[in-house]
Amino acid sequence: MLGQSISKNSFILAAFAVFTAGALALTNLGTQERIAAAERAAQQRALFEIIPLQDHDNDLLNDTIPVPDSAWEPLGAGADSKIYRARRGNEITALIIPATAHDGYSGDISMIVGVKRDGSIAGVRVLLHKETPGLGDKIELKKHQWILSFNGKNLNVPVIEEWKVKKDGGVFDQFAGATITPRAVVGQVKRVLEFVAANQQSLFSDTQPLAQTVPKGEAHE
Predict the structure, then answer these.
(1) What is the rounded (10 degree) CA torsion for 159, 161, 167, 171?
(2) Which of 132, 111, 138 is nearest to 123 (CA)?
(3) Looking at the keywords, is rRNA processing present (predicted)?
């Protein structure tokens, strides 16, 4: 009887362990999918903040090219990174380029940088970071207007030597008690502009539409 009871309990425990492991695996998979979906949604919102619908007539989400492998290191990008292209008619008017600053205070700072055909910045948005709440997280637009200070700037305005935070002799504000975070963002945005300047002709030379134009009045989701 004792042996049967032990065997029965062991079976129940084993079945419970299998059930629990399966439930945890399903929960983890579901969580990963939700996180990935949330990240994609955040990126899409940021894309249209930088290049709003009225400023392009192509399917921005599907008109992409891969980041060239020679740019992976300076941009902090990877094999799956894509450059989004905005068009008016058949002409590429702006690019949205992914970039990651690896020298943030608390780790990587993932962002996208919109660059117009004339080399000026259409906008910058931070997508993911782990910077200190109340200090470094001011790089988020919902927390502070600082990220908008890049709008309209290029490698000549300010001059290249002034693409730094003020503490380092540049023109960009730092945050009280947090210099490392804005320094990392400024440096990475500058590297994006340098990448575009070095590859301007090839990046903007494709004038053939790769995706269907968006009918007037149709909104993106």
Answers:
(1) 0
(2) 111
(3) no
Q: Sketch the domain layout of the chain as residue ranges.
A: 1-50, 54-204
What is 37-100 written as a DSSP string? HHHHHHHHHHHHHHS-GGG--B-TTT-EEEPPGGGHHHHT--TT-EEEEEEETTEEEEEEEEEE
Q: How many CB atoms lie within 10 A of CB 144?
A: 13
For residue 190, which of 166, 167, 168, 158 has the smallest C-alpha distance?
Answer: 158
Structure tokens at 184: 């990392």
Residues 6 or more apart whose CB falls under 8 angstroms from that of 189 comprise: 99, 111, 113, 121, 124, 150, 163
Q: Is 18 exposed, middle or buried (0-12, 13-18, 19+ CB in 10 A)?
A: exposed
Mind listing the pLDDT tens digit of every residue in the chain (221 residues)?
545 555 555 566 656 656 665 566 666 667 777 776 776 677 778 889 999 988 899 988 899 999 999 999 999 998 899 999 999 988 999 999 999 999 999 999 999 999 999 999 999 999 999 999 999 999 999 999 999 999 999 999 999 999 999 999 999 999 998 999 999 999 999 999 999 999 999 999 874 444 444 433 433 33
Strands 64-66, 82-88: pairing kind: antiparallel
